[in-house]
Amino acid sequence: MPLAYVKLCLINAETLAVEREVRLKQSELVTYENGRDRAVRTWQALTAKQETDYLDRLMREAVASGVPHLLAQ
To answer: Would residue 69 count as lying in a domain?
Structure first.
């Protein structure tokens, strides 16, 4: 199962001090049907490209949901 831990920081450009911080976890259960035998495959059955695509999407979703929380504090 892919899992992304993300920490977003709002940094003051003058002082380089961290003004705000948001920590997030984003995950997704990965299963899919494999042809006629209807066998369920898991994360280990994915190619490196598919794994990278899943993780990239999870990171983007985490950042998209975290930025509004970061700016609202």
So the answer is: no
Q: How many domains does the chain have?
A: 1
Instruction: List the domain range (segments joined by +) for residue 38.
Output: 3-59
Report pTM.
Answer: 0.70
**Which residue from 10, 36, 41, 37 is spatially nearest to 23, judged by alpha carbons?**
10
Residue 26 and residue 58 in contact, taking contact as beta carbons nearer than 8 Å: yes
Let me know if residue 9 belongs to a domain. yes
For 15-49, write each residue's pLDDT tens digit. Answer: 999 999 999 988 777 666 555 555 556 777 788 99
